[in-house]
Amino acid sequence: MIELNRVRKVFPGRRDAAEVVALDGVDLTVPAGDFAGVVGPSGSGKSTLIRLVNLLERPTSGSVAVAGRVLTDLPADQVRQARSSIGMVFQHFELMDSRTAAENVEHPLELTGVGRAERRRRSAELLDLVGLAERAGARPRQLSGGQKQRVAIARALAARPQVLLCDEATSALDQASTTGVLELLRRVRDELGLTVLLITHEMAVVKAVCDSAVLLEAGRVVDGGRLDDVLTRDDSPLAAALLPAPIADDRVAGTLLRVTVTETAPEAAVLRVLVGQLGLAVEVAGGSVETVAGGRHGRLLLRITDGDLSGLDTALQQLRAEGSKVERVAA
């Protein structure tokens, strides 16, 4: 649904300054129906990337395809037409203060010549979808930040896009509003069958709603994939950022085991063998288990405090053969 191939974007330097390479050979594929995140520190190229997807910025080189159309091959008038299949949600809402919530939602339809009756019908339908039917007549100054973003989401959906782009859509919101907006985006994706690409610097946002993600650093993709795969890789910088691995403390007595938890390899399987079969005394020395991409994922550090360790290595081999990720990190 979204495909960037060897995309490079270079901005000329100001006056005598050197040129700025914002993106440097980025490859990105987002399948239809996926909720994908692009995460990275400030200056990594995230916002430039999302502006390239709908060609608000043209790449210096490389290609951008959306919904089967290579946008970088299209003339300007066809690019404008192609953008009708791409909705955009901004960090600071970008609502028109002089218009009501309903009129803001109607605006993109007005620009494309849709009749008044159909505009009003569509606006009412979308405001109901985002939970703001009763606020249709309110102006932006009368709405909270979370409500403004819901109106902006409704407006982005007005033209029935196939793809929804979200540029730091929750960065200006408090925690309660962030949770509500993320839940809405996930529900809208599910109900309307959209493909969503979300730009954020917040790992908590990726964990809350994304199926897949890429990590950008200095304009390059340094890691990425489906989260349920990424979180099982010990060498993944994205996994380390999402769920930092617990660190073994040399001062802690006992045998330490590091366990990677997934939906198919729960920590209970490891504990059942260690405690149930071997009769060992085990406690959690660190780490956490969270819900990520709709499933349980985590990294735990287990400490064996008492018991006969003679059968431990054999038991660990058994667990690995059954799909558990467990390693002995200290003795």
Write up this protein:
With 331 residues, this protein is an alpha/beta fold. The chain has two domains: 2-238, 3-Layer(aba) Sandwich (Rossmann fold), CATH 3.40.50.300; 245-330, Alpha-Beta Plaits (2-Layer Sandwich). Helices cover 33% and strands 30% of the residues. It is built from eleven helices and 14 strands. It has helices at residues 46-53, 76-82, 101-111, 116-129, 145-157, 175-192, 203-209, 227-230, 237-242, 267-277, 312-321; strands spanning 2-11, 20-30, 35-39, 61-66, 69-70, 86-89, 163-167, 195-200, 212-217, 220-226, 255-261, 281-292, 295-306, 325-330. Strands 6-7-8-3-9-10 form a six-stranded mixed beta sheet, with helices on both faces. The chain has a four-stranded antiparallel beta sheet with strand order 2-1-4-5, with helices on one face. Strand 12 (281-292) and strand 13 (295-306) form a beta hairpin. Helix 4 (116-129) packs across helix 5. The radius of gyration is 24 Å and the shape is elongated. It starts with a strand and ends with a strand. The model has no long low-confidence stretch (mean pLDDT 91).
